[in-house]
Amino acid sequence: MHITEGFLPPLHAVAWTAITLPFVVVSARRVNHLMRHQPQTKLLLAAAGAFAFMVSALKLPSVTGSCSHATGTGLGAVLFGPSVMALLGTLVLLFQALLLAHGGITTLGANVFSMAIVGPWMAYVVLRGAQRLGASLALSVFLAALLGDWATYLTTAGQLALAFPDPASGVAGSFLKFASVFAPTQLPLAVVEGLLTVVIVNFLREYSGEELQSLKFPPQTLLVTETRS
Amino acid sequence: MKVRNEGLLVLAAVLIVGSFLIGSRQEGAEFAGADGQAMEAVATLNPEYQPWFGFIWEPPPEIASGLFALQAALGAGVLGYYLGFRRGRAHRRNRPDAGD
After folding, report:
1. What would the pLDDT profile of B22-72 be if each residue is shown by its tens digit?
2. Burial degree of A185 (CB within 10 A; 0-12, 13-18, 19+)
3. Does residue A21 fall inside a structural domain?
4. Interchain CB distance below 8 Å, B38 and A207
5. B43: which chain A residues are within 8 Å (Cβ-Cβ)?
6. Does A130 fall in a domain?
7. Structural domain total, chain A
């Protein structure tokens, strides 16, 4: 999902940066708020960031004969809510853009948007939805991380399609072309991401009860609707 | 029902190894990055497009692999520290008399 440095036309680069910036500002405030009012969750937040840092460095082989990596942003999103991940994801992507020639500064806005905004929000919405439908927590977390990962890669495909429409079939045709590069590769990798996220959440439920309680995780969606009705 | 973590980790490993084996059979499988392939698709859609901004710094290949390893190690280190710390604390609480 890393769009390489210089691979978005200037106008697109500026637009994605402008769209992304407010999310990162809100995210920084949210993290700041968490640090001040729930300092006991500081270490868990660092661990969630570290998970994204770790898995986005690991390029895994896929069935297509190409390589890609997980995003790792679903974990933080389901635990802390989606907004904290914009800041954490920006730090990860900045590290890669500056030190690894992976991604870029001109494409940072677009990459943060796909990995650290769309992915986490998708994960969060899926978690809530699955819980409301009565799915077990493990299944909900699995689906959240999996679909968050896919959403990130499809967003990248959309961003590239907007910048480089197909001369014949337009943006839609171009989207299919880019999606066909990412989607099959990401298919098994997103499942792996889902599994790893469940492993960590299982661990947290066993050993980090207090922190999860202060974060109100797992979300008690059913309970709330019952008391309201 | 609590799904066993060991089983999930084994499943993840099987998926990765299985993907590699299936991927190896694909024609011209080089396990190149999907990101790079997408940038190649840009070139076919718009052959005239020239990246207008280059990398500020590009690490030599050996340094790059080291930095990738460093990134994974830092992430795994912090995550492992957290998990070990919490597990140790929970165990100590369950057996208060066994403290050191």
Report:
1. 999 988 889 999 999 999 999 999 999 999 999 999 999 999 999 999 999
2. buried
3. yes
4. no
5. none
6. yes
7. 1
